[in-house]
Design a protein that fits this description.
This protein has a five-stranded antiparallel sheet with strand order 1-7-6-5-4, with no helix packed on it. A two-stranded antiparallel ribbon has the order 2-3. The N and C termini lie far apart (31 Å). It has one domain. The chain contains one helix and seven strands; from the N terminus they run βββαββββ.
Length: 97
Amino acid sequence: MNAIEFINGSLEFDGIPLHQGSRWDTIAGALAARGHTFIAAFGPPDFTMGWLGTGHDCKTLGINIATRENVGGDEGDDSIEWVITSKDWSPKPAEPI
């Protein structure tokens, strides 16, 4: 097994709910307060491709969290669609656009 994709259920890190009923702005703020930084998996400032190319990557936790909007859902829907981790987690090298 190389990766775990969490799609449904209750998942927490350090008392912070990461999935069921969670919203991106709440998760990002709570984890940032504990020293974890997320970057858009694809976006400004240099449009470097992240690990999955969708959602938000956190190198210190080795996870990617995507909202429903990130994966093509309703615009502005920041509820969590998935949390993914992998033993092989690492951002991909930048690719030409």
